[in-house]
Specification:
Elements lengths: L5 E5 L3 H13 L3 E5 L5 H16 L5 E4 L10 E4 L15 H18 L4 E4 L4 H12 L6 E3 L2 H16 L6 E2 L2 E2 L7 E2 L5 E2 L2 E2 L6 H12 L1 H9 L5 H15 L4 E10 L5 E12 L2 E5 L6 H18 L5
Parallel strand pairs: 1-2, 1-4, 2-3, 4-5, 5-6
Antiparallel strand pairs: 7-10, 8-9, 10-11, 12-13, 13-14
């Protein structure tokens, strides 16, 4: 590998491989793709490397079944775990994926003690707690990918509804990564025009509902969880840390009083940079939004309560 800084992606399934591919295309870091299945990370890494000639980036992706190659990573993206299948709730994944994330976290921190951990594994809110508890890292250095993905889905639906470019949609989704997430309509606009001036309340409610059930919709279509948008969302977070971008992005962060919520990972706007979560941005919410966020927090806390770690 080169002398570039290093990002490790654990889990060479669809989400992890997509994340590694997007990071390789950014062309600023070495990428290590780790998976327990022999041949899988090596093969996907080789395929991504060979695409570099075609798309104009340097081939610096390595696949491994262990963690030696990942030593000294600045960022570790954890995607390992079972995907969500048809008829399976996110909560059904907790017991199995808790064991997987615990094992991965222990091995990662042993060789990359200073890495920022980005958690993608489902059930995401609960798995952030597992990674934080096992790693012993401060809250700033363990963060989850959820709000970026949910916001991308919301923005896409808004663009289609309004006949606008998705590039001109400003949107934000808070709360847990589940059916009780909170698309923040008051902070949503198209080209600077508030959404409520463009779309009626009935249609907005339909967009909000589709966003909240967006993961389930894809599971029904694909027979498994989505991967293109989740992988790209995780890569965007890695960019923000690796390049110290100071991006304000909706991420799953550990709250200690912010938004009136204590000791819980929740989706909120954060400033993401080299230090990880460098600030939590507190927005003014209306009464309905505050109530929805508290209801989402209660749902997340119920799932976290079944963890053994």
């Amino acid at each position: 590998m080169s002398a570039r800084r290093k990002v490790t992606v654990v889990g060479a399934g669809n989400v992890g491989a997509t994340c590694a591919q997007v990071l390789a295309m950014r062309d600023y870091a070495d990428v290590v793709l780790v998976d327990i299945k022999e041949g899988l990370p090596q093969g996907k890494a080789l395929d991504i490397d060979q695409m570099g000639k075609l798309l104009g980036y340097e081939p610096n992706v390595v696949g491994s079944n262990g963690y030696e190659e990942s030593a000294g990573s600045a960022v570790v993206v954890i995607t390992a775990g079972l995907p969500r299948g048809p008829g399976m709730s996110r909560d059904d994944l907790v017991a199995t994926n808790e064991k997987i994330v615990k094992d991965v976290t222990e091995k990662v921190v042993a060789v990359s003690p200073d890495a920022v951990l980005i958690v993608v594994s489902n059930q995401l809110d609960a798995m952030c707690h597992v990674a934080k508890n096992v790693s012993g890292r401060p809250r700033e250095r363990v963060v989850g990918m959820a709000g970026i993905l949910d916001t991308a889905r919301f923005a896409t639906f808004i663009a289609w509804e309004t006949g606008s470019s998705v590039k001109d949609v400003t949107a934000l989704v808070l709360g847990g990564h589940g059916d009780q997430m909170v698309p923040l309509v008051s902070a949503t606009s198209v080209g600077g025009v508030p959404l409520r001036r463009l779309v009626g309340e009935e249609r907005i409610a339909a967009l909000v509902e589709r966003t909240a059930k967006g993961g389930g919709e894809l599971v029904q279509l694909l027979g498994t969880s989505a991967w293109y948008a989740p992988g790209a969302a995780a890569a965007q977070m890695a960019d923000a840390v690796m390049l110290d971008e100071k991006r304000v992005l909706p991420c799953t962060a550990y709250l200690q009083g912010e938004y009136g919520i204590d000791d819980l990972y929740m989706g909120v706007p954060v400033r993401l940079g080299a230090g990880g979560v460098e600030a939590i941005v507190e927005l003014e919410l209306d009464a309905d939004e505050r109530a929805a966020l508290q209801a989402s927090a209660a749902a997340v806390r119920e799932v976290v309560g079944v963890l053994r770690t």
